[in-house]
C-alpha cells in the first residue's frame, strides 16, 4: 500500500494529465465573457461597495476597460483575471472616494443676509436673529430646533446626536446667553 502523501501526489498528477489531454476550449469573445461573468462580477462588486447601483457601475467600467485593452491581451484566458482585478481595484477607488467625501468639512462660511430679507424683518425679529447668530453652533441648533422646528427634547437629541440631558442643559445655557444679549 502507498503512503498517504504518495497517493495524493499520484492523484494530482493524473488530474493534470487529464487536463492536458482534454480538448482546449475555444477562446472566449468579449461578448461570451460578458454573458458568463457579468453577474458574478456584479455580486463581487456588491460585496465590496455595498450598493447595487455603484456595483453595476464598477462592473460596467471594468468591461469598458477590458474592451479598450482587448487587443493587448496575451490570450482570452487572461481576460477573466484582468476583469476581476479591474472590479476589485475600481471598488477600492469607490471606497476611497467615499471615505474622502465623508471626511470633507467645507470651510465655515458666514451666512450673509440679503438686503431684501433684512428690510422685511422687524426690529425685534432682527435683534433675535442677530442674538441667535452670536450663539455657538450647538446652542443655536438646539434653540432653532426647539422653538422654530417645534421638536421635543428627544427628537432634538436624535437629530443632533447628543443626549437628552445635553439638550436640556444646552438649551438652558443658550436661553441665558440670549437674555444677556437681548438685555
Automatic annotation (TrEMBL):
Q: Answer whether the UniProt record assigns the keyword Acetylation to this protein.
A: no
Under the heading InterPro entries, the entry gives: RNA_pol_sigma-70-like, RNA_pol_sigma-70_dom, RNA_pol_sigma-E_actinobac, RNA_pol_sigma70_r2, RNA_pol_sigma70_r4_t2, RNA_pol_sigma_r2, RNA_pol_sigma_r3/r4-like, WH-like_DNA-bd_sf
For this UniProt record, the keywords arranged alphabetically read as follows:
DNA-binding, Sigma factor, Transcription, Transcription regulation
- Where the record annotates domain RNA polymerase sigma-70 region, the positions are 33-99
Q: ATP-binding as a keyword?
A: no
Record-annotated RNA polymerase sigma factor 70 region 4 type domain positions: 126-178
Q: Name one Pfam family in it.
A: Sigma70_r4_2
PANTHER family of this UniProt entry? ECF RNA POLYMERASE SIGMA FACTOR SIGM, RNA POLYMERASE ECF-TYPE SIGMA FACTO
Q: Which family does it belong to?
A: Belongs to the sigma-70 factor family. ECF subfamily.
Q: What is this protein called?
A: SigE family RNA polymerase sigma factor
